[in-house]
Specification:
Layout (H helix, E strand, L loop, with lengths): L12 H9 L4 H15 L5 H9 L2 H11 L13 H8 L1 H15 L6 E2 L2 E2 H22 L7 H6 L3 H9 L1 H14 L3 H8 L4 H11 L4 H9 L11 H16 L12 H11 L3 H20 L6
Antiparallel strand pairs: 1-2
């Protein structure tokens, strides 16, 4: 008598988020949470960030190595985390720690067709740099949460790739064969998309609501509530322009032009503003790549 083939459990949003929350991705949530709390607390100091880094010896070693690299161009060797805080500055150190900790899980040689984690990381990093520059140069704001949210905006893509590999391969084929966006392909095959996964995972990590909403609505920027609209629309605009310039992982943006233009209008930005910003992003990425700083 032949044994019955074991039926595969249906793939659900809750199931994927549950698997991701107990995987190596969980380390991202804890470090981002700690850094965001420090940044958001007006009474916190740079020494508190130093304390967070120092309890993670591998991270400390990476931070010191990066601080002494040509990328930062410091005039003396940095031998302690206290010196890193002083010479690099609080914000530069915060961004470096986020890049190293979040980027670590993207650092893989794994490739599926035209997709690779490294290409997804390059795209995520470019979007974060673009968002940071828009906030600081166009809005004249620091945008403390925007860099973290932008780095994590596509974390749901990696969750699907890691925990639903068969479905992910189908999604990639749909993108290539039909010229549709990854969200459209995911909804057809899974019934939900990576933005929903990312939002649920960020909420499970107990990240601030602005981050969870920015991740969850970045492909639907015109549906975000007014409270979160600026962050969401900035990530969407940055995501769109980075894809149009083919930086890192690509999917179709052919049906998003109208949303892009409406988001620009809502942000009171022009295409010329964004094109100037993307030139700065290219320069930063080039500098990182030349100094071996692009990947963790």
């Amino acid at each position: 008598m032949q044994s019955k083939k074991k039926r595969k459990k249906p793939l659900t949003l809750e199931n994927l988020v549950s698997k991701a929350s107990i995987s190596e991705l969980a380390s991202i949530g804890s470090i981002v949470n700690e850094i965001v709390k420090i940044i958001r607390n007006p009474n916190s100091s740079a020494s508190e960030l130093k304390d967070v880094i120092e309890v993670d010896p591998p991270l400390s070693a990476k931070v010191l190595r990066r601080a002494n690299s040509a990328y930062y161009g410091l005039r003396r060797d940095v031998t302690s985390m206290q010196e890193a805080v002083v010479f690099m500055g609080f914000r530069a150190l915060k961004e470096l720690v986020l890049n190293l900790k979040i980027g670590k899980v993207f650092d893989s040689d794994k490739k599926i067709g035209k997709y690779s984690r490294r290409e997804l990381w390059k795209h995520s990093l470019a979007v974060a740099l673009c968002c940071k520059n828009i906030y600081r140069k166009e809005f004249r704001e620091q945008g403390e949460d925007i860099y973290s949210a932008a780095l994590l905006h596509d974390i749901g893509v990696m969750v699907v790739e890691e925990f639903a590999p068969d479905e992910f391969s189908q999604i990639l084929k749909k993108i290539e064969n039909e010229g549709i966006s990854i969200s459209e392909a995911e909804k057809e095959i899974l019934g939900f998309d990576h933005t929903q996964i990312g939002q649920e995972l960020a909420a499970k990590w107990d990240l601030p609501e602005e981050l969870t909403k920015a991740i969850g609505f970045h492909n639907r920027p015109l549906h975000a509530s007014p409270k979160f609209a600026r962050a969401v629309q900035t990530i969407f605009v940055s995501d769109y322009i980075c894809k149009s310039y083919k930086i890192g992982f690509q999917d179709s943006i052919s049906n998003l032009k109208d949303t892009y233009e409406k988001s620009l209008s809502a942000l009171e930005l022009s295409e010329e503003n964004v094109e100037i910003v993307i030139e700065d992003v290219f320069e930063e990425l080039k500098k990182m790549e030349e100094n071996g700083e692009l990947y963790p």
